[in-house]
Each structure stands twice: as C-alpha cells, then as structure tokens.
Amino acid sequence: MSLKIKELKKNFPIFEHNPNLIYLDTTASSLKNNLAIEAVNHYYSHYGVNVHRGVYNLSYEATKLYEDARETIANFINARNDEIIFTRGTTASLNMIAASYLSKLKPGDEIITSELEHHSSFLPWLNVSKKTGAKLKFVKLNEYGDLTVEEFKKVLTNKTKVVALTYISNVMGRIQPIKPIIELAKQQGAFTLIDAAQASAHFKIDVEDLGCDALAFSGHKMTGPTGIGVLYLNNEVGSSIEPIEFGGEMVQTVEKDSAIYKQAPIKFEAGTPIISGAIGLGKTVEFILNIGFDKIENHIKKIYDYTIDKLRKIDGITIYNKKSDTGIITFNIDDVHPHDAATLFDKNGISIRAGEHCAQLIVKWLGQTATLRASFYIYNDYADANKFISTVIETRDFFRKF
User: Fold this and answer.
1) Which of 138, 181, 243, 330 is most exposed, with minimal Cβ within 10 Å?
2) Catalytic-residue membership of 358
3) Residue 1 has pLDDT above 70, yes or no
C-alpha cells in the first residue's frame, strides 16, 4: 500500500506555515513530526522538572516518561534498556567513545576508518591518532565509492583495536556491508563503532544481529527533535568504558579522594539530561513504526527511481551516485558552482544542500570541491520531483547564458 502524502504531510506542522515548501535536504536534517513536537511541549508545560532526583510526584512522572522513551528506543534497535545512552546527537556519541580511547591506545595500535565518513565519524579518531600515536588505516573504496569486505580484510590485522565506519554515507547514500565487517573485526578483538545517523530513518536496525559494540544515531535525522541522540553501547563492553563527563546523578559514592560511579547508562549521563528531546525521540520512533519501514522505503524508492531516470537524460548534469538506497542524489550542473545553483533552487521554493556535506574526504574522492545534494523522504511526492527536475534544467540553461 502506498503512502498518502497529502494526509501524511498533516503530521508535519511546517507545511501549515510553508505550504509550497519542497524540502529536499532530509539527509542534513529532517522536518519534525507533530507527535514529537507535542511530546516536547507536553513535558515543558506539564512537568518541566528534573528526572531521577526528586521524591515528589512531578519528578516521578517525568522520570517515567524519560525512561519509557529509553525502553521504546531500546526495542527499536533490539537492545537492552541499560545499553541506551542519551546524548546530544550522533556527533556527541561518536566523540564520547573516541575520547574514552585516549587512555586505551598506544603507538603501534591501529584504527580502521574510511573516506566515506562524515566528519563526526572521522575527526574524533584523527584526534585520538595524533594524541596516542595509534595509526589510522583506510579501507580502500571500490569504483562506486563503497566499502567491500575484500578491501577491509586487507587493512585488518591483529594490531587493529578500533573499527569506526558508517552504515550509510550522507553523500553516496548506499548501505555498506557492515555486518560481515563487524564479524571479521570481532575475530581480531577490535572494538566496533557504527555511525548510523543516516540509517535509523530508513530501515530496522538490529544491534543484536549486527554484533557491534557501539552504534550512534540522532533524532533530527528521523523527523524527531534536534539536540538528542542515542549511543548504543553493548552491555558487555560498557563496563570497560570510562565516562568522560562528571557531575550530578552519575555517581554512587563520593569521598574526598575517590568516587564510585553508577552503572551504564546513568554513568554516561552526567548532569541534567536532554529530557524533552528523549521523550520527543521516543514518540518519533512510534511515529515511524506506525507508518512502517516497508512503506517508507517503498515510497522513497519510487520517487528516487522516477527522479534519477529523468535526471540521467538531462544534458550537462553529472551524477556521482547512480544508485542510492536512501533517496540521496549527489550531482553537479556542469560549469555551475553548487552554491550558485542552490540559490536558484531556493528561489523556486526548493531546499537542497550545496557544499562538502561535512564529508570532505568523500567529496575529494569524487574529485570535487563541492556538490549539490537532493534527498527525498516520506513527505516528498512526484510533484516535488517534477519541480526539482524542471529547476535543474532551468538552472543549467540560466548559467549557459554567461
């Protein structure tokens, strides 16, 4: 059964204020669903108090909402409740793990990454490498810009301590062979960390099946609030990871010369947590599951296939990812700077991304300094696609005059 886009758009209040909006930048940040917005507002208007601390009823009820959200998200990725840590986003989650490895790595140790990575997946480990003397190793990409198990095997050794890779590139849009890579990494005893920021809104993630040690994603990529993220940290390895932030609630006992910290996840959530964001993210998960991943992906595929077929027939266009699993089209209009092109798109009411997409390594791998990127999601339809295609032609023709 197809999605009824007109009805679905009613779940996104932004269209009430911007009825002609054609939003094609979901890969950067999605539009926000009404369940999440209402949940955030409900928390602030009905509670607004802290969690885990107060013995009064308001605090108890707020804590229940917060922990219910944790349970919802744990079920969402097939994890245990105590394996779900709330952070301010994927960036914070990935940095938390990297920072904890500053005391674990030494010269001669190896960290495996790739040119596909978002800066938040790569830069923390570049920093760790420089400070510890551990060596960064890159999985060579194939001709399509994908990871392969064969190339991963070539860089994996008994010195590999960390494997930090993306599930889906925010530029290329394809699902990577993460599961077999994790299996190989575990054979060498390496810690595996997966950036799932682009994956969480598109298909069911099962951390138990993947077997990864840690995995991160953000609410704002999946129609939820900004400022809230999730770090899944496998319970078996979580006890070996030390917190990098210290303060209220995360500690059990404090003496003048020592402290005993609580168990995960609380030991990683120092201070007042992102209460409203977590509650909003819990409702976002319910929103997505109520639609169904099958319907979501079927809809995106139809719009993407229609658009890419039309785009391929347009002269003067270079497409860098001829295939995408997530509705991402990365392209350039020949001899037109992406920022100039994006300005014309904006005049036509179309929001697309222009630049390096916080992923300079893969953009450079493509031989570019910047690209245009359009990304389709559940609130886009064929009318959006047609307007996008006509604007590509209009932009090309406009700049050909000069």
Assistant:
1) 138
2) yes
3) no
